TrEMBL record:
Keyword Nucleotide-binding: yes
Gene name as annotated: arc
GO MF annotation list: proteasome-activating activity
Identification of the protein by name: AAA ATPase forming ring-shaped complexes
GO cellular component, one term: proteasome complex
Similarity field: Belongs to the AAA ATPase family.
UniProt xrefs under PROSITE patterns: AAA (PS00674)
Amino-acid positions noted as binding ATP in the UniProt annotation, renumbered to this chain: G240, N241, G242, K243, T244, L245
Keyword line: ATP-binding, Coiled coil, Isomerase, Nucleotide-binding, Proteasome
Subunit structure comment from the entry: Homohexamer. Assembles into a hexameric ring structure.
PANTHER family associated with the record: AAA-FAMILY ATPASE, PROTEASOME-ASSOCIATED ATPASE
Amino acid sequence: MSEERSAEELAELNDRLMEKNHALAQALTRAGRELTKAKSQLAQLAQPPLTFATMVKVDSSHTDEDGVQHASAEILNGTRRLVVPVAANVNAARLTAGATVMLNENMVLVEQRGTDTLGMIRTVKETLADGRLVVADASGNPQLVRRAGSLASASAAINAGDRVIVDPSVRFALEALPEADDADLVLEETPDVTFDDIGGLDEQIERIRDAVQLPFLHRALFERYDLNPPKGVLLYGPPGNGKTLIAKAVAHALAAGSGAGSGVFLSVKGPELLNKFVGESERLIRLIFKRARERAADGRPVIVFIDEMDSLLRTRGSGVSSDVETTIVPQFLAELDGVERLDNVMVIGASNRIDMIDPAVLRPGRLDVKIRIDRPGAAQARAIVRHYLTDDLPLEDGADSDALTRVLVGDVYARDERRHLCDVMNDRGAWSAVFLADVASGAMLKNIVDRAKTKAVKASIVSGTPVALNAAMLGEAVEDEFEETRGSVLDADPEQWSRINGMDAGRIVRIRPVV
């Protein structure tokens, strides 16, 4: 029994020792892995840093009797030009100009990477015969750069006006960028406004139809009489009287009946073309006319509409601005009647201040047709109001839209003390009375109707049932508009206010409230 017990104890002891050996082997394995990891980390920490540089060209290269390559390369390290040896494991024949290369602590070229995709942006001004490029920064300062290897085979793809990325030393053009997307400067659309939506401007609409629509709708007749269509039309006059609406209606009419496919309406955001960087505004003007020519190449009529034209094409040398117009105006004129023809393209400008537009822009042969959009009289005002005060609205029993229109227009155009805005004095010392009718516009009339509709909506919300429009609401709306207009007139600069509003009293030097 004692011998059997001893054998069992020895077996148990052997099992425990084997478990301990197994655990010890696992611990040794883990310790080995940790030691290997530590050695690797230590080697990384001890490794010297590599330096980035830009490859220029292979300076020299030869192979000795043992087949070992010996080469050196010219590189740019920041602004320093260096000639460094090339490691034997780097194929010197594959080193590319403009590519990023790595230098070890001994300034040996040990690796070539791809071309950097980040850097300063320059605009190409000229492409030389040998492939070099003249580029300019935002201030217009020119510099001469080489092409990187990635651009060496694309000589025809880089033209004046293109954008390229250059390296920090500004010696290499690394990559050509796609054309700048300036679509936000031009709204391209076909408006849904028709001439039927415009009231009180029948005479002006007839004139612009003769100037704009006829050349596109009757091309054969114009060719038969050797008559060229006008290049441009200027709509001018006090603000809020339908200049922009007329331009949109023209575009809609051309799109509907041109016979050559849908017309295009390019609405230019004039103030956004003004750029503090030299040459940038001129580039944007070229881009707009280039887009117009492309759209018109298939015979479609294209309208380039420039609202607030006086902000972009001011009289040169006037001193009222930064004189940026001294270069913008010539660029606009060069595009309008330069070497490249503007077939099927017409410029329509709108302005409240024709006196501020450069005379060269206004001469015949450029903006040939000038149409004044004046303030509406009482008859025109009734036509305008009828567009917004219609029979399908909820009207008071016994009233119709014609009757309410007469009431509203009669109130607005009354020349009595109720609608006496202010008195103005001209530069000759003569005083004149100004009434609400003297500053009425299509936009004001629409706003009065909208005020009355808002009052009806609020009354309907309070009562819980629809409330009909009536003469009292229209009268309150006219009174509200009168009070707001009087406040704005009294706070305005007299001379500027009179020029914008086209007052018949002459140059206004003083405005006084009604006592």
